[in-house]
Amino acid sequence: MYTVLPEDRSKHLGEELQGCWDKEVLRAKTDARKPSLTKAIIKCYWRSYLVLGIVTFIEEVIKIIQPIFLGKIIDYFEKYDPTDSAALYETYGYAFVLTACTLILAILHHLYFYHVQCAGMRLRVAMCHMIYRKALRLSNVAMGKTTTGQIVNLLSNDVNKFDQVTIFLHFLWAGPLQAIAVTGLLWMEIGISCLAGMAVLVILLPLQSCFGKLFSYFRSKTATFTDIRIRTMNEVITGIRIIKMYAWEKSFAELITSFRRKEIAKILRSSYLRGMNLASFFIASKIIVFVTFTTYVLLGNVITASRVFVAMTLYGAVRVTVTLFFPSAIERVSEAVVSIRRIQNFLLLDEISQHDPQLPLNDGKMIVHVEDFSAFWDKASETPTLRGLSFTVRPRELLAVVGPVGAGKSSLLSAVLGELPPSQGLVTVHGKIAYVSQQPWVFSGTVRSNILFGKKYEKERYEKVIKACALRKDLQLLENGDLTVIGDRGTTLSGGQKARVNLARAVYQDADIYLLDDPLSAVDAEVSRHLFELCICQTLHEKITILVTHQLQYLKAASQILIVKDGEMVQKGTYTEFLKSGVDFGSLLKKENEETEQSPVPETPTLRNRTFSESSVWSQQSSRPSLKDGTPEGQDTENAQVTLSEESRSEGNIGLKAYKNYFTAGAHWLIIIFLILLNIIAQVAYILQDWWLSYWANEQSALNVTVNGKENVTEKLDLNWYLGIYSGLTVATVLFGIVRALLVFYVLVNSSQTLHNRMFESILKAPVLFFDRNPIGRILNRFSKDIGHMDDLLPLTFLDFIQSFLQVIGVMGVAVAVIPWISLPLILLIIIFFVLRRYFLETSRDVKRLESTTRSPVFSHLSSSLQGLWTIRAYKAEERFQELFDAHQDLHSEAWFLFLTTSRWFAVRLDAICAIFVTVIAFGSLILAETLDAGQVGLALSYALTLMGMFQWCVRQSAEVENMMISVERVIEYTDLEKEAPWEYQKRPPPSWPHEGVIVFDNVNFTYSLDGPLVLKHLTALIKSGEKVGIVGRTGAGKSSLISALFRLSEPEGKIWIDKILTTEVGLHDLRKKMSIIPQEPVLFTGTMRKNLDPFNEHTDEELWDALKEVQLKEAVEDLPGKMDTELAEAGSNFSVGQRQLVCLARAILRKNRILIIDEATANVDLRTDELIQKKIREKFAHCTVLTIAHRLNTIIDSDKIMVLDSGRLKEYDEPYVLLQNRDSLFYKMVQQLGKAEAAALTETAKQV
């Protein structure tokens, strides 16, 4: 890529505009008005933009001159006289001017476009620079008024309006001017009847805008349905394991289908509107010409070829400007005005006061002194955030600040930072500040650059910092050590690691004053102690340190302690003083203790020494999105990790097969053949209408020639006959045009509907493995983005392409029909064109991809800067970040520049091809003057002139269609996934099966994927009717896999019998409906409570209420506004986890099956609920076979039998007491690990069973 020109540098442009804006703000202050961003923009850019206006003017003038010369050429043919060589040479002159005009237009147009788009780019870049600069200076009050999302939105959406507005802005004056000029010229040509044509144009404009309004109305309606569908889809994919185990697929299929049906109905409506709009654009010129000439003839005038075609070409020129450019100019300008207003409001927000609390060290004394300090975050509120605080910290002192949540601890630090302006009192800070925020903040870059933060790298010091912050081990785990890229595009660090990187950054800065906002709570106890002792107490020993903390055990080490509550200082002193006066720390921090201890601590003292910080274990789990079932089991997660296949991206062109599938999905092939015929007929009618006019004019001139001198004989033509046929053809054109547009939309939207249904069906029937291998986002993307393209953009682009393509073919056809030998140069031009197109498409795809990849760093840099705003300001790194932002911008500008130039390169060459075509026709017709009549030449030439913009548009749309067909391909790819076994077989099991509930495993092997490792090996076991069996084993021993095998989530090898019927011989639904499961992660679906309990409406209301009463949820549900028919929030988030677990229990109770499987159902429930669940299971399922997977041994110690699994093999299977007698058994060892007291209690319980 080329580097950006110095005058296009982000920094240069931004500062230029910023200068204009600052002047404008000052002027506005003196005039006591609101500063206007528009004025600043105009002042900055008007000169360069005015020059482009002159170009526009020249271009429009040429467009108007062209038809006049065309008329002169046709005139020569009308008065054709082989002997008159002077006239011939004169006409050659005209032909030369005509082709010269065409060439000049071809070049000028693209020069203009290129420069205008560059101007747009400059404006956009300058704006982004200003927005970012402002964002770094926002005061906290201002941050309250806007959100990160809003600022990113300004940068992603609003600024892009400038790219488009500059293109069309000049048409605001060029459009009306051109319309007036054309009307004048037409008046000279055909008199008053030109007004009739213009009237049609004027009527069409509001019609189109009406369509636009209606369309946006439908659009918003559709959007709500689409949102609902995608949300439901998201839940289906997230909860697919549960849906499969419950065999609820059909209910969800119905749900989604009904949403989709509503959505499609709306989409069809808006599509028909769009079709009408496109068709009206296509037909408009026909209607205008028809109205004009009908009026002209009826007023008793005589038609001549030159008049007809001059009028047609003039109308063509003005129509594009008036119906396309002018309205879009108005639309773009109004959008831009809104955007400018939003940006202006943002630029006028309060900035942080630039006075600096960090005074330089003049006398070498570092100190933080706060005296009687009060402040408000929000000026409006009565209660101050901080009230009357006073404290002093000197070097070698550690001030610990403690207090409940929301007491104002972080506000105290921000006051020292100077982020929180005082309403009274004063803050004196001598020395350099380093700040560690509560939410750890990293920006995208290497770990090392995150720690250095702009300082020089000194190895020794760096190593020391790493050691003090306990990062050495973590850095060894990362693949490139401290040069691993983290942040948006790199590996993600866990919360604990981020917190330590943040701390390391502060320590490396070697500042004088350290403000630490609770850096210890994100890491686990062991690491936390290490950080406190090594980092805070040793490394920062010499410094002034203010530590906000919740960890009371460290208060002993603090030189003074400040207790804050509700913004006021409760007490200040040392630890020993506090102990003497008998302060109960616990009660002071009551409020926060309740908040931090939400997760119940298991009563068993199982503290293993963890090397990993807690949060990094968490982040590992969360980075494996779709392993929903069981604990992420060692083996199968590994295997799923390996096989997360790369998303297939089809390279190169789209096969014909995709197009064939796409169309046949929409309609029967007979209809498609009819559609193709219809398209051809419509185009033929379109051309015939023009041809008839030229034929009419020829007949007329033939009559004029024969009767020389006696002009009154002209009236011989039968007006009714000619006009009648002309009207007929016009009506046919209009009708066929509209019908074709609607039919194309109907077929394509239909095919989108069909493909969506097929894709959804195949997703529901896909085995669970598929969902483990593909992350949720990837599957959802097909349903949102790709289907969205097929609903919305593809039909439109397709129709547009078909129309313009047929036009181009029509033009060529007419030219060849008039002058047959034109086909020779034509073929040559077509070959050149195809070579160019292939060459261009390959490049443009990559350039487009480049452009979008270079764009994202700009946004991510902004949002990460906003998150770390305080940190950046505390370290005085604004300048550096501004430069980084400018560098990102310049990179994007490079890509954008390539994008502009490549598309213009192609367009110039296309238009050159068209210009050559026009030249060939003009001179060819003059050479063959004898054989041709005026009408034919007029038709061929005026058609060739329309080719200029049309051809290019056609090619561009064809490229668009191809790009969007990628979406279709991706959807089709998901319509034939491998399927799991059928849901039902012909031979169905007896309805009462299984009435005993005996389960036999006979030499079962199980893998999740064909090539994956075995997760169960040679498992043989017998579970008798009504037995309660507990299944235990380490993580990854295959406990959950046992259940997967039972439910046939993947096909097991070996035999599993339930009541003498082989599980592999029944349909999946028949099998899965007969076993109830209480899953590990309780899943509720958006919808009513009733739907969640009983999606197929198989039970009465009483049964449902009884079930709810059994699990003590009756009151909770009765309190809901619509009782059982209340819509639950997304994924049931208005219920706690425990309540959701109870709903799952209620589902199992309702099913009344003989086999119940509990998968660690009690792992995330408090003890009361746990006891309740256990009790219910003993009561309700006394006569059933129950398999329980458990981590807490006390839940399964009273089972009839216990199955101990280890790495996929069945190690022990016997009664719990028997197993405990055997000192060598795995189970005995597991119980002993819990500690003496607990083990004794468990053994006692086992004895009584």
From TrEMBL:
* Keyword list, A-Z: ATP-binding, Cell membrane, Lipid transport, Membrane, Nucleotide-binding, Translocase, Transmembrane, Transmembrane helix, Transport
Topology of this chain in the membrane: Multi-pass membrane protein
Q: Where's it found, cell-wise? A: Apical cell membrane; Basolateral cell membrane
| A Pfam family reported for this protein in Swiss-Prot or TrEMBL | ABC_membrane
Q: Where is the ABC transmembrane type-1 domain?
A: 50-334, 673-963
Q: Which Enzyme Commission number(s) are listed?
A: 7.6.2.2, 7.6.2.3
Question: One GO biological process from the UniProt record?
Answer: lipid transport
Which residue intervals are annotated with compositional bias (Polar residues) in the record? 598-612
> Where are the compositionally biased (Low complexity) regions?
613-625
Enumerate the catalysed reactions: ATP + H2O + xenobioticSide 1 = ADP + phosphate + xenobioticSide 2; prostaglandin E2(in) + ATP + H2O = prostaglandin E2(out) + ADP + phosphate + H(+); dehydroepiandrosterone 3-sulfate(in) + ATP + H2O = dehydroepiandrosterone 3-sulfate(out) + ADP + phosphate + H(+); urate(in) + ATP + H2O = urate(out) + ADP + phosphate + H(+)
Sample GO molecular function, one term:
ABC-type glutathione S-conjugate transporter activity
- Region Disordered: list its residue ranges: 592-646
User: Record's GO cellular component, any one?
Assistant: basolateral plasma membrane
Q: Per the UniProt record, which residue ranges are transmembrane?
A: 49-71, 91-114, 165-184, 190-211, 278-299, 305-326, 667-688, 725-749, 793-815, 821-840, 906-928, 934-955
Its domain of life?
A: Eukaryota
Required cofactors, per record?
Mg(2+)
Spell out the SMART domains in the cross-references: AAA
Primary location group: membrane
Instruction: Tell me where in this chain the ABC transporter domain is found.
Output: 368-591, 999-1232
Cite the record's note on assembly: Interacts (via PDZ-binding motif) with SNX27 (via PDZ domain); this interaction accelerates MRP4 internalization.
Identification of the protein by name: Multidrug resistance-associated protein 4
Organism field: Equus asinus
